[in-house]
Amino acid sequence: MKHPVALCLSAALIVAPIVTLGGCSSTPPTAIQDSARDAALASGERRVSTPAGTLQVRETGRGATPLLLWHAIYADPSMFEALIDRLSPDYRMLVVSAPGHAGSGLPAGPLTSALAGAAVLAVLDAHGIDRAAVVGCSWGSIAGLQAALQSPDRITAVAAFNTPFGPGTSDLSTRAIVWLTGWMGDTAFFGRRVASGFFAQSIKERQPAVVDRFVAAFHGRDTRALQSAARAVLIERESLLPQLSRLRVPVVVVSGAEDPLYPAAEAQAIARNIPKARFVLAADSAHLTPLEQPALAETLVRELVPPSPRDRPGQPR
User: DSSP letter at 43?
Assistant: First the structure.
């Protein structure tokens, strides 16, 4: 099956030269990235050396129960902001900018799913955290599941939203989206095409500001770094399917009812092969459930990883 987002983007090969002439940034992407990185570092974020590259990580939250959050391909950490606000009183959160996104670097060699899992563990090490749960969306779910496979004693649970469990694909439409990422991945036009497949129709209609913020985040991106990440995730991704039966940590598998990329029925069937998994179907959601339905995401995280009593309001610390 052709990648739905790629089908939309393939048309851009014809119309993009006209549409994007007035929409490209006059500031070099690398300069914008450097400026954003410097501002982030000044606000208390830190850069962590990992096997998947040097990653930008923000620590937030007023609780002690640790969570690591890793976003979807083409998104950035801002997709978790509404969820972070809800969880902040009770959790200590490490919010990762994935390789090739939002100021984070790339490894010297191929970017594999195993390296993403190792990066999760490296981020925990850098913050002095022995054990934590992972909240991931799409690529972030892969990173969390890989970390749980590599070190089941350190990953307490994984909230796996909108997960591509199978291998990547190298069909023409997927190659087209990766190629276009390098050419126009820093434009609102490209962001709109991605959003068309990532958001549920009800979100587009009732919460256009959410979609607009997602699209605005494409401005100034390092298109070559983003392209490398997209190639690794969309084309070169290794299948998780043969390893799922080895998972020993609790997992909640969440699929958007309107996800055109990875159908919910397939995810539900796959979840049955994970020993400690439960499946949840998210209504009014496509491929970015934590962003589209933060209240549901909060409930699922709290059920999966209850905060310790001393993290709850009114309890002595």
Answer: T
| Cα distance between residue 258 and residue 170, in whole Å | 24
The per-residue pLDDT for 312 is 52
Regions of the chain with pLDDT less than 50: 1-42, 314-317
Q: What is the DSSP letter of 239?
A: P
> 218: helix, coil or strand?
coil
Looking at residue 156, the DSSP 8-state letter turns out to be E
Q: pTM score > 0.90 for this model? A: no
Report domain extents, the chain: 28-168+238-310
Strand partners, 59: 94
Paired with 94 in beta bridges are 59, 68
| Dihedral of alpha carbons 281, 273, 166, 266, sign | negative
d(CA 218, CA 184) in angstroms, rounded, equals 10
Query: What is 28-168+238-310's CATH number, 1.20.1250.20, 3.20.20.70, 1.10.520.20, 3.40.50.1820?
Result: 3.40.50.1820
pLDDT tens digit sequence for 162-183: 999 999 999 999 999 999 999 9
Rounded to 5°, angle at Cα 72 from 69 and 78: 60
Mean pLDDT, rounded, of the chain: 88
Torsion of CA 187, 193, 198, 202, to 10 degrees: 110
> By the 8 A CB rule, do 203 and 284 touch?
yes
Q: H/E element holding 147?
A: helix 139-150
**Tokens 């350190």 label which residue?**
154
Check residue 25 and give its pLDDT: 34
Contacts of 89 (CB under 8 A, 6+ apart): 61, 62, 63, 311, 313
